[in-house]
Amino acid sequence: MEYRRLGKSGLKVSALSFGSWVTFGNQVGDTTAETLMKKAYDAGINFFDNAELYADGKSEEVMGDILKKMKWKRDTFLVSSKVYWGGKLPNQYGLSRKHVTEGCHAALKRLQVDYLDLFFCHRADRETPVEETVFTMNDLIRQGKILYWGTSEWTADTIMQAHYIAKENNLIGPTMEQPQYNMFHRERFELEYRRLYTEIGLGTTIWSPLASGILTNKYANGIPEGTRVQQPELQWLRDFVASEEGKTRIEKTKILAKLADDLGTTVSKLALAWCLKNPNVSTVILGATKNAQLDENLDALNVLPLITEEVSEKIEGILGNKPKFPLYG
Ligand SMILES: NC(=O)c1ccc[n+]([C@@H]2O[C@H](COP(=O)([O-])OP(=O)(O)OC[C@H]3O[C@@H](n4cnc5c(N)ncnc54)[C@H](OP(=O)(O)O)[C@@H]3O)[C@@H](O)[C@H]2O)c1
Fold first, then answer.
1. Among 50, 56, 46, 67, which residue's Cα sits nearest to residue 26?
2. How far apart are CA 34 and CA 67, in angstroms?
3. How far apart are CA 207 and CA 27, in angstroms?
4. pLDDT for 92-126, tens place per residue?
5. Is residue 117 part of a domain?
6. Which residues pair with 82 in a beta bridge?
7. Residue 211 Cα, ligand 1 centroid: separation in angstroms?
8. What is the dihedral of CA 114, 115, 120, 122, to 10 degrees?
């Protein structure tokens, strides 16, 4: 396993990490969840990602039980939660001092840990001043309940705003962002955030590196049984896969699969290695429902050397979506 610094912080995070969205407490049983987490840990993964939203808290409960059962030393793993969607009542969601504080306390209980290593604002909240959230996160750090805080899918401007509010008030600002990043979804990560990496030293824990499985080529001939796309609550994903853009991505994946084959690897590994190749990626969060998937994905680091200049250009040619940098700014 390779370990990278989380942005400019001193925290070392494994280049591959493991998340539980759709899977824990939902698509996979608790025994499978345990086998997958153990496999990830044994391979050197040190970061496990979670959120209050996932399976309405059940995902954190399942992960908490596994952490307790495994008895891994606390200084050998990082665990996260994300706050925003805790419920439907007025103060059960958003980034107010009340919900961020209560969301943190509830996650600590479900995960059965004394502190969260990483705590994310799952989205930005237009109804809470950024100051309120920055001060609250700083308080949680001072209280020892979280170690680092960050954002997920915030605009570059709002992340910068949070950074400067923290700076002006001698508080601890956001260390990391959790954005979607994969071969098909690049603009925000590569273009919008580009100055944040150098100017504030932002770390990144990227999600859906396989575009929810599309980049495995598993949808080449229709939707196989038991896949995420069939999960009842993911109608939007079913709609997306059936859309023109979804179909285009499936077709491009077929071509990428041919390239991967020529290189002696699989398209899943190539797609993950492509993310890892970007030095602004601190960690690629993997998702898996089966042992064999995780085995395959864990091998992605070995595929990194195959992505030469020439291969990168071939990939760009297939994707045709390289973000265009503005002439100024
Ligand atoms: N911050 C956010 O807003 C946000 C949003 C989404 C995710 N996340 C985080 O990022 C993590 C990863 O996201 P993701 O689960 O969407 O990642 P992903 O890698 O894009 O998709 C993972 C899914 O693809 C399928 N798959 C994975 N490897 C495969 C392989 N080798 N062969 C065939 N199928 C394979 C599995 O689903 P099936 O077996 O069902 O096909 C698996 O659950 C999440 O667990 C969560 O922690 C964060």
1. 56
2. 9
3. 18
4. 999 999 999 999 999 999 999 999 999 999 999 99
5. yes
6. 120
7. 7
8. 10
As a whole number of Å, the end-to-end CA separation of the chain is: 37
224 found inside a domain = no
Indicate which residues carry an active-site annotation.
54
Q: Which two tokens stand for residue 152?
A: 């997920």
Side chain identity, residue 275: C
Domain with residue 288: its CATH number is: 3.20.20.100
Number of domains in the chain: 1
Say what the alpha-carbon torsion angle 294, 300, 302, 305 is, to the nearest 10 degrees. 180
Q: Confirm whether 42 is domain-assigned.
A: yes
43 lies in some domain: yes
Backbone angles phi, psi at 153, to 5 degrees: 60, 35
Q: Are strands 16-19 and 283-286 parallel, antiparallel or unpaired?
A: parallel
- The residue whose CA has the least distance to atom 21 of ligand 1 is 212
Cα distances from 261 to residues 173, 243, 265, in angstroms, run 44, 27, 5
As for ligand 1, residues whose beta carbon falls within 6 Å of it are 19-21, 23, 49, 152-153, 178, 207-213, 216, 218, 227-228, 268, 285-289, 293, 296-297
Residue 329: the pLDDT is 67
User: For residue 144, what are the domain limits?
Assistant: 3-213+276-306
* Predicted TM-score (pTM) above 0.90: yes
